[in-house]
Design goal:
226 residues; alpha+beta; Alpha-Beta Plaits; three-stranded mixed beta sheet; two-stranded antiparallel sheet; 6 helices; 16% strand; elongated; disordered N terminus
């Protein structure tokens, strides 16, 4: 280990400027290392947005139907090209299309079914789905997470049952609203409602959701028997 260099002065003392400069450099290095600590002065976590469903069943069904219909039609066209008779279903379809008018019931029914299926596929492609998942905040851009509604409702129910005076609780969790219905037995309903608002508000903030739902609490007395 190298000894610190000291420069003698006229009065016999030693100059420790090098040591002080070295110590200041170490302090600055430590300060820079602390600046890179995750969560220290960094941006607030952003929301992850709605999660999109892959729609495997509708997409697979539509792809198989299109593949089967296209393959069958191409096979029939190729057979006709080699001077073989067309399939019976295509001859019958051509005859029906030639004889039936546009206002025929069968034509209108088929057009309605085709339009309904097309509209259904458009809705599936334009909507995210996965309504049972609540998006959570993203601490990092590459991280995406979601919480199931049933799990969030169960957690809120457990927190509500911990409040003194609560006899029964029913929680309905939605994307934008948490509807809580409680039954109080030996305490004033107004006091129970205040405690529930405080406890459940903290619980909702602790879930880490990107868009915390609004809290709606209703407290009632148990009904009289008989």
């Amino acid at each position: 280990m190298n000894e610190p260099r000291r420069t003698p002065t006229r009065d016999g003392t030693h100059d420790q400027t090098h040591d002080q400069t070295h110590d200041q450099g170490n302090d600055q290095g430590v300060g820079k290392a602390h600046d890179h600590t995750p969560g220290a002065g960094g941006p607030a976590p952003a929301g992850s947005g709605r999660l999109w469903s892959s729609r495997r069943v509708p997409a697979g069904t539509a792809a198989l139907l299109l593949l089967g219909g296209t393959g069958l039609l191409l096979y029939d066209i190729a057979a006709v090209r080699v001077h073989r008779p067309a399939m019976r279903w295509r001859r019958e379809l051509a005859r029906q299309l030639a004889e039936r008018h546009l206002d025929d019931t069968v034509v209108l029914a088929g057009a309605g079914v085709a339009a309904a299926l097309g509209l259904w596929l458009i809705v599936l492609a334009a909507t995210p789905g996965l309504r049972g998942l609540l998006p959570m905040r993203r601490p990092r851009p590459e991280v995406r997470a979601a919480l199931q509604r049933d799990a969030a409702a169960l957690l809120l129910r457990d927190r509500a049952m911990d409040v003194s005076g609560v006899r029964a609780v029913r929680v309905r969790m939605r994307r934008r609203k948490a509807d809580v219905r409680a039954v109080a037995h030996f305490r004033d309903p107004g006091e129970v409602r205040t405690d529930l608002n405080t406890s459940l508000g903290d619980a909702i903030r602790g879930l880490g959701l990107a868009r915390p739902p609004a809290l709606s609490v209703r407290v009632a007395r148990p009904g009289r028997k008989g």
